Task: structure prediction
Amino acid sequence: MLKHWPPLSTLRGFEAAARLGSFHKAAEELHLTQSAISQQIRSLEAYLEQPLFFRSGRSVSLTDAGHDLLSTTQALLQQLAVGIRRLGQYQKPNQLVLNTTPAFARHWLLPRLGDFRRRHPDVDLWIFSTDEVPDMTTQTIDIAVRDDISSQAECSFKVLHADRLYPACHPNLLAQPQEQRSTLHGEREMDWSHWAVEAGIDVGQRDQGLNFSDPGLLLDAACAGLGIALVSQLLSRQARANGLLQPLVEQTIRGPNWAMLTHRDSETNARSFNEWLLSNLENDSPTMPG
Result:
């Protein structure tokens, strides 16, 4: 591996000359003199210790090494240009970066995003969904809404919603005998052992079956008729409204607490989203007895 990179300017000069087949045209494109382009190419060739162009009067053509370097240089410059353009997203004055879980983003937030956009068209919302809890002190995140977070430095912390869980499946699955229904298993509170301790009701769950680490995917599987699952009341509202999910019993048990972290430097920009979020969560009042 090279200890030092050649100057970027020499690579830009080389790429333009190789692509255009002319030092003169490369100079015009880069707003330089032809002698400056020639000097850049000579400097690059000296650095690489081999010629990159065949020169015949004013005509130039690439050597084999030049052809090889051209493809590499074009890919490098293209990637660099894309990366630099992407940095512009961090300079948007109305940008708001929200971190949340994939399950919350897909099952709760996405069905309501149209309403938020209508109410706040000036907010440039960036949804950054991750399985891992973010570090708000080192990452560029304004708000985090998750069921697995606690207080962090430089952030305000607020519990938003105490979730409830219940066993459910696709309505078509209820036509099958209980012993023939598959069982879907999740992690943490979505594990059936939590239901056994908290509710103690046998709904036909079995120890074996499909297992999911993502509660959103677990909910998708239940809606697809793959089996019975212990699902989040908050995340499943849209699925129930669409007729894709039906509870097996009316009993619910305690689930995780959904909470919000707001970085102190983002409190002003985050106010409209926070107010909208709290209003919608209040509208999601329980529809089943606890």
Remarks:
- The first strand starts at residue 53 and ends at 56.
